[in-house]
Amino acid sequence: MAKDYPVIIAGGGPVGLALAADLGWRGVSCLVLEQTDGSIPQPKMLTVGARTMEYCRRWGIAREVRAAAIPRDYPRVSLYATSFRGKEIYRFTAPGPGTNSWPWGPEPRERCAQTLFDPILKKFAASQASVRVRHQCKLVALVQTPECVIATVENHALTIPPILGA
After folding, report:
1. Pick from 128, 126, 130, 155: which is nearest to 140 by CA?
2. For the structural domain made of 7-165, what CATH number should be given?
């Protein structure tokens, strides 16, 4: 990791990976630092929005995301109850297949959980020659000088112009 990067992205979740994917798609060299091993024990995202799907389309991965998504004919009902067999508190039916949250855009949202979406995004980002993804690398300090920012990653120091948090 001795190479200096023009951009370091602190965080390898969907936002950090999307930023790396787009920078890599544009040929900008960047390093993604993720302090975990990359596994997702509890997904924080269950739907890929229409605008994000437009990015996926531009990057050429929209078809793969759609294939990983919950089938469109699967019931879209969320139910809240006091217990598994308890009293129903609230029921919500999400818009069905073919419904686009942004009807003027080319892509509908997809019900694709983070556990399935992140690996697709990471594979695409890492396939870009200018992107490096490092797991179990913790950003521990930033020092700004008039010329640059010095990022300390565990026991390594990297010199960079900007820093982006994701």
Report:
1. 155
2. 3.50.50.60
